[in-house]
Amino acid sequence: MSVVGIDAATGVLLVDGKRVFPLVLSNGPAPGRKAPNGRNGLAEVAAAGVNFVRTGSASWDAQAIAAQRALLDAAAQHGLLGWLWLGELPNLPQGPSPRARQLAQVVDGLQSHPALGAYKGVDEPRNVFRGKDWIRPDGLVRAYERLRQLDPTHPVVIIQAPNATVAQLRPYRPAFDVTGADVYPVSYPAGTHVQGSNRDINVVGDLTRTMVRAAGTKPVWMTLQIAWSGVLPPKHVPRFPDLHQERFMAYQAIACGARGLTFFGGHLTQVAAPADAAAGWNWTFWETVLRPLVLELSSDAVGPALVAPNARFAVTASVAAVDLVTRQDGKDVYLIAARRGGAVSQVTFRGLPKTIAGGRAVHEYVQEPPPPPIEPGHQVFRAVEVSGGSFTDWFAPHDVHVYRFRP
Predict the structure, then answer these.
(1) What is the distance between the alpha carbons of residues 325 and 314, in angstroms, rounded to a whole number?
(2) pLDDT tens by residue, 302-359
(3) Residue 132 to residues 125, 174, 194, 290, 370: CA-CA distances in angstroms?
(4) In terms of Cα–Cα distance, which of 260, 256, 261, 267 is closest to 227?
(5) Structural contact between residues 335 and 349, judged by C-beta atoms closer than 8 angstroms
(6) Which residues pair with 359 in a beta bridge?
């Protein structure tokens, strides 16, 4: 059985004591199906750095429990964890009920599986478009308390719609260990999912900050776009984020407080190329957008920054339109900076330790003469000079730079 918890000081997920930044596919490739390169689909995404896939069911009985155990078996073969959606079960009335008994049966049947990573609660309970039928927190709190009694070793995650306020969301705090929101801003017209005044992709950062305030001291995982109902034909013209947009949204969410990311919609084959539809998953989006991003996020250069504590010193930017977070682990300082808008200009950062003389903008490659012996194809990350705790760099709108410094 996996033991999954949360570091109270940082909000970082702990899986058997190891710090993990969740990179989740919702949903991932079906077990047994292959990627275009002939590799097992789950093996393909796991090799790039995906570590969670959403599993679960809208309805539950003994057959569904057995099916979910088989899905978790397939995930375990490739080192993946399951984010188990419980449908409407985690919304309990007062007192004994058939739903409470069914919830206990599901948890008892699956909690011991080594690939179980977390539970997914009721989806978007405070969605204002439910009208009068939006789900009150009381039943979710009762279900959460029961879940923690049955299984104290796996957290409960509730993802909200993007259209609620902090005041509306705050009452849900006792119902989860982790929260977050769906946000899919790339569509025709732009921003139809969020339904707010900000139609730019930087609405991801705004919503992340809203969820951080609503969560209190609990961590936030944000759900970003592959595809969603608002880009599906025939009612809509399909539109996907490109790599530059997806990379910006991912890093902006992190800079604004996210401790995990989910990518939704790869399984929506109504908006996939014919070959992908036949394969059951959007492998074209994977190859052109998501795989390069996941490889970067899970790399040795970036991965440690995503699970490191926030630094105890404050770094500021000379341009207000830059979202940033500074992290520090045992040996390195990391600065993640995403420019939400404005013009192309230089941005000055101040507040780094005076012991830092320079660093690197990671995954920004340059050719520099290596020390002998010279190796063909030698590459290094772009150098950044720091003086007196300050440095300056260029940013365009929706640019992201990830810096690594060693005092």
Answers:
(1) 9
(2) 999 999 999 999 999 999 999 999 999 988 999 999 999 999 999 999 999 999 999 9
(3) 12, 22, 19, 37, 66
(4) 267
(5) yes
(6) 384, 405
Instruction: Output the six-digit token pair for 91.
Output: 């919304």
- Residues comprising the chain, all counted: 407
Alpha carbon of 99 to those of 66, 104, 124, 184, 394: distances in Å? 18, 9, 19, 32, 56
Angle at alpha carbon of residue 336, lines to 330 and 337, rounded to 5°? 155
Torsion angles phi and psi, residue 14, rounded to 5: -120, 120
d(CA 3, CA 18): 10
Tell me the CA distances in angstroms from 274 to 29, 277, 284, 290, one per residue in order.
16, 5, 10, 19
Nearest Cα to Cα of residue 33 among 283, 286, 292, 289: 283
What is the side-by-side order of every strand in the sheet holding 380-385? 322-328, 333-339, 400-405, 358-366, 380-385
112 Rama sector, left if φ>0, alpha if ψ -120 to 50, beta otherwise: alpha
- Tokens 């009612």 map to which residue? 235
Maximum separation of any 2 CA atoms in the chain, in Å: 74
Neighbours of 407 (CB within 10 A): 13
3-class DSSP state of 206: helix
For the beta carbon of residue 40, count every other beta carbon within 10 angstroms: 18
**Is this prediction's pTM over 0.90?**
yes
What is the crossing angle of helices 243-255 and 203-215, to 10°?
30
**3-class SS of residue 193:** coil
The C-alpha atoms of residue 401 and residue 394 are separated, in whole angstroms, by 9
DSSP string, 40-102: BHHHHHHHHT--EEEEE-SS-SHHHHHHHHHHHHHHHHTT-EEEEE-TTTT-PPSSS-HHHHH
> What is the spatial distance between Cα 236 and Cα 233, in angstroms, rounded to a whole number?
5
pLDDT by residue (tens digit) across 266-288?
999 999 999 999 999 999 999 99
Token duo for residue 310: 């926030």
Residue 46 phi, psi dihedral angles, 5° rounding: -65, -35
> 3-class SS at 147?
helix
